Amino acid sequence: MESTQREIVATGRAGSARRSSRRPRVQHLVTADETSLTDLEALLTTLPLCSMGRVFIEVPDASHIIDLDVPSRMIVTWLDRSQRSGAPGTGHLCASGVALTRAVTAWADEMLCDEASLEPLERTTVSLLGGFLGTADIVDHLAGKLGVPAASIHTPERFGLLTR
Q1: Predicted TM-score of the model (pTM)
Q2: Dihedral angle computed from the Cα positions of residues 110, 159, 100 and 112, in that order, rounded to the nearest 10 degrees
Q3: Residue 32 burial (10 A CB sphere; 0-12, 13-18, 19+)
């Protein structure tokens, strides 16, 4: 019994050593809306097949949902505004950018824990393709509250949100 336990411990240590020498793991966070679906498709074609991460897409209603060719390790979430409410307790409809901002900030709060505590080889690359309002709020949350480096966040230049 003792020798079996030693073998397991030894194997575990060797496994750890191998893990630290592997290629850097990059997680992708991608957002889009109905106005940027073409840009989204173009971006997705540039990602390696082994890419991992999340894609959040806000659309006015289900008729805007299309088939996307995404790497198998990426999860796509469609956010249908017609099925969501605006500010809680107001009875208002969901405005453009609101569903996207809610979903991305909730995901980021859970999944992008203190990036400084991650192994130096792990990082998140953020590509925000949606409209200005949602994108601006997401940038504020990621860079301001969570401390995601501005160099990791990519937004359309026309928005003027990040200065490098």
Answers
A1: 0.78
A2: -10
A3: buried
